[in-house]
Specification:
The chain is built from four helices and no strands. With about 110 residues, the chain is mostly helical. It has a domain of about 80 residues.
């Protein structure tokens, strides 16, 4: 499986933006640029969501871990809500779902292998 780097600056900033060259240089040096640290919570969720989705697919084929699989589905539900246009940080139900996702991620962290 090939790891694809994400250029957060590319497509988000016009090439004449004063930060564009610096972010491009950062990306070449580290594989990410400083723009991802502005909203690190969102950057982490964007990075984790497709990987957890794929992990779940693979893990279901290799292990019969119903509780872990259920928890990952709940984590993904919160992460996908966060990434959707429907997410509202002032909606208590939404923030509780996201908090639950992060708590379950921490609780199940050591089980994320196959």
């Amino acid at each position: 499986m090939k790891f694809t780097k994400t250029k957060y600056y590319d497509g988000c900033l016009p090439s004449d933006n004063k930060h564009y060259k610096k972010y491009k240089k950062d990306y070449k040096k580290r594989g990410f640029d400083d723009s991802v640290t502005w909203s690190l919570d969102e950057s982490l969720i964007k990075w984790l969501t497709p990987r957890l989705t794929r992990f779940l697919e693979i893990s279901k084929q290799k292990h019969d871990e119903a509780k872990l699989h259920k928890n990952i589905k709940i984590i993904l539900k919160g992460f996908n809500l966060y990434l959707s246009d429907d997410f509202n940080e002032f909606n208590l139900k939404h923030t509780k779902q996201l908090d639950k996702s992060f708590k379950l991620l921490a609780k199940n962290y050591s089980g994320l292998w196959w």
